[in-house]
Amino acid sequence: MITEADEVLLRRAIALAAHAVTIGDAPYGSLLADPDGLILAEEHNTVRRDNDIAAHPELKLARWAARELDPAVAARTTMYTSCQPCGMCTGGIVRSGLGRVVYALSTDQLIGLNPGSNWPDVRPEGPALYEEARIPIEAFYLR
Q1: Terminus of the chain with fewer CB atoms < 10 Å: N or C?
Q2: Contact by Cβ (8 Å): 11, 33
Q3: CA 24 to chain centroid
């Protein structure tokens, strides 16, 4: 259930996206807030500026949270973001232990507004070489 307080913070994420455009960056913004709505960190997309395909605001915030927040604190945060996180960012968010994500535009809505924004599927192949690949995994986890 998205509340009025959520909408206020979503509008801030949208404002970060709008600001990004004014400085030549892609139109995506995100922030991380504690349970009381206090903004802990903000980011916008800097993929072009940084020449870094991973410089999405959601991933930058997830990495920041994993480094800077105690896991119990991270679990009580909410990420507010102008667009639904992509698969890369979703993976980072899950691993960072954030508690909740609230987004303004869905991926389908984004693609409708910018038809060229959908990435082609890459076909994975595997699993393969189980006996060889398991050795470093077992060496690390089963010591």
Answers
A1: N
A2: no
A3: 20
